[in-house]
Task: structure prediction
Amino acid sequence: AGVEMDVDLPADEIIAEVDPRRVERILRNLIANAIDHAERKPVQIRMAADVDTVAVTVRDFGVGLRPGEEKLVFSRFWRADPSRVRRSGGTGLGLAISIEDARLHQGRLEAWGEPGKGACFRLTLPLVRGHKVTSSPLPVKPIEISGGSSQRRQVREREPAGESV
Result:
């Protein structure tokens, strides 16, 4: 039993001038958070690019965010429900660090969520170092995808033998 990952990537390679360590840290944090909050429902990862930017969205179908929380989630040590008993959880610094990493790239990290519908985080970065992001090729509020020239992959997270999640 794990979390299903639905991954939708462009068919063509995307090249961007980024600090790979920082971008990997952002993506690891977004994906780990989505898995933690997925409540055994699928996690969707989407990537798209236009002439100026590349965007990645990570969506879960868990408890979601209440109105106004889409800004609060990036505050240090903030938790949607601090009293909630969790089997896992971090320091509350991951999204605060991630938004700073995005800003260092002149990019954006944004959130959307609705109670009971889950949450979606969108990272948008310029393809060329130093350029500012003015728009994004993916919406922060999820829409259903329909066909297109992309590669869809389904990945299942597997629990290591002898460990429970």
Remarks:
- The first strand starts at residue 4 and ends at 10.
- The CA atoms of residues 9 and 32 lie 19 Å apart.
- The first helix runs from residue 20 to 37.
- Residues 4-133 form a domain with the Heat Shock Protein 90 fold (CATH 3.30.565.10).
